[in-house]
Design a protein that fits this description.
Elements (H helix, E strand, L loop, with lengths): L2 E4 L2 E5 L2 H20 L4 H11 L4 E9 L3 E6 L7 E9 L8 H15 L4 E7 L3 H9 L3 E2 L4 E2 L6 E8 L8
Helix pairs in contact: 1-2
């Protein structure tokens, strides 16, 4: 199991059979912290089902706080990857864990030979938008309604050079 360190954040490759439920819990708690009440069962199933998709990078931050990032392939454009999830325990927000996980996701996507990394973020999630734009992501097209909740989601894209990116 590979372990990386980004600015004192310990990140390791996630183990699908062992780490999925921990990540489900982090995702649900982070949404509850951001949005208030959420359909925890539906959100948990959404995360679990993502592990059936082709995984490019599944990483878990273990210190000083816990978080995870999940990048998948299988996009209509085979040269792009999707950052499907990036979440940090609610008490770890602002600690640099998200930035470290994002750098790890970018590095591993570039190493994998992908030309771009795409994501969608809720248009009113200012903290996440700032994180992504500082890393070089740019808006890509018009906002689209979230398929379940209907709120607007803005697509972002980061062009990769095919070699490792640094933070």
């Amino acid at each position: 199991m590979a372990v990386n360190t980004f600015n004192e954040t310990v990140i390791r490759t996630g183990v699908v059979s062992d780490d999925v439920e921990m990540c489900v819990d982090i995702w649900v708690r982070s949404l509850e912290s951001r949005d208030g009440a959420v359909d925890a069962q539906a959100m948990a199933e959404r995360v679990r089902s993502a592990f059936l998709n082709p995984i490019i990078r599944f990483a878990v931050a273990t210190a000083p706080r816990v978080g995870f990032a999940f990048v998948e392939s299988g996009r209509p454009n085979p040269t792009e990857a999707l950052l499907r999830f990036l979440a940090v325990e609610p008490d770890g927000e602002g600690s640099g864990i998200g930035r470290a996980l994002l750098a790890d996701a970018i590095d591993n996507t570039a190493i994998g030979g992908f030309q771009s990394l795409v994501l969608e973020v809720r248009t009113n999630h200012k903290r996440a938008i700032e994180l992504y734009t500082r890393a070089g992501f740019e808006p890509s097209g018009a906002a689209v309604p979230h398929p379940r909740a209907g709120y607007p989601m803005q697509p972002y894209r980061l062009a990769l050079s095919g070699s490792a990116q640094s933070d």
